[in-house]
Structure formats: structure tokens, C-alpha cells
Amino acid sequence: DAKTTQPTSMDCAEGRAANLPCNHSTISGNEYVYWYRQIHSQGPQYIIHGLKNNETNEMASLIITEDRKSSTLILPHATLRDTAVYYCIASGSNDYKLSFGAGTTVTVRA
Amino acid sequence: GAVVSQHPSWVICKSGTSVKIECRSLDFQATTMFWYRQFPKQSLMLMATSNEGSKATYEQGVEKDKFLINHASLTLSTLTVTSAHPEDSSFYICSARPPGTAYGYTFGSGTRLTVV
Hints:
The complex is a heterodimer.
Chain A: E1 9-13, E2 18-23, E3 32-38, E4 45-50, E5 55-56, E6 61-64, E7 70-75, E8 84-91, E9 104-109
Parallel strand pairs in A: 1-9
Antiparallel strand pairs in A: 2-7, 3-4, 3-8, 5-6, 6-7, 8-9
Chain B: E1 4-7, E2 10-13, E3 19-25, E4 32-38, E5 45-51, E6 57-58, E7 67-73, E8 76-81, E9 90-96, E10 106-107, E11 111-115
């Protein structure tokens, strides 16, 4: 898996958009960008993934730069329940193992 | 859909005993499952890849004789921690991926193992 770099922590205001950056400058052409989050003492939760195009689902939007060297996860309206550790992972698509880095600890404040 | 069930959620065992953790894919078949371990305030560390009908592949530094993995069916993988010691106390998590590229990997809710 390509190495990813994320900020250690971020604070966000409740109700505002949260933009979480991730650098993956060594990502290869067949590697997807995955985002997961882990709320304390739970298993990671899948958020979104993409290859080249921007993606949106009911949880978040994923913006991938044209050169694919970085991406941004956008939580459109952060709530207190979005407080978690967010992991950005670059990995292949077929039964490739996921390697977790340290992630970004996001704290949403009222 | 795409649910992975893990059991038990927590377990306490005595040193020297063995503990089995089950991971089931409830609504899809998984030829491959993954086992992770997470110590407090640390990230998830991949322990092994469980392959249905064949031997598991262990990551470097993980003792295969201590962490026995069996993937006997397309919906069940088990992790047995043998001769558990207090340093094996950790949060164990499994994952699997539904077929196709529309989904990411789905994780179980984790098992908190405490060895006393």
C-alpha cells in the first residue's frame, strides 16, 4: 500500500463542514483511496472510497486531485457523533489488505 | 447489507488458556478475511489474512502457532489465541469485503480480550 500522511488532529464546529486532508504522493495507478473512521472501542466504519473521480454518498464526499497525490474527505455538516479517528488508506481493489496509519483524531465541538 | 459479525464482544480469560474469536460475514461470502489487533491509543495492526480452504498468511512478527486461524467456510473465520498471556490483551478486529468494487471492507465490532 502507498504511504498516506494525515494531520494528527483537527477540531471542527458542529454544523459546519469538516475537511480532512490526506497526502498519498506515491499512490499507484491501481490503488484506491479509502476512508474509514473508528469511534472509540468500535470496529472501523467504512465511509467512502474512490479511484480517480470525486465521489459522494450519504455520509461524505471525497475529492481526489487530478494527479491523485492527495485527497480531501468532506463531512458536509459535522455532528458530535462524527467525533472519531479518521483513516485515509491507499490500497488495491481486490482482496488487498488495508494498512492503517495513525489517522486524524477529529473532535467536533458544540 | 455487507455486515460482518464478530463474537464475543469481550472476553476475560486466565493466563495459559485459549480463547476463540469468531468472525462471520452475514450476507455475503468471503474467501478472504483479515484479522487486526489494536492496543490502546494505537492504530490497527494487521495480523494475518485468512483464506478459505487454505492456510492463513501471517504478517511479519506474528506467531502463527500462537494465533491460530481457521477459515473453514465462505462465511466464517476463527482466530484462536492459544496459551494466552497478559500481553495478548488487546482489541481484536476482523474484516472482509463484499464482492465487487462498490463496497469497501467491512469490519466487525471487535473483541476486547483481557488476560488475567
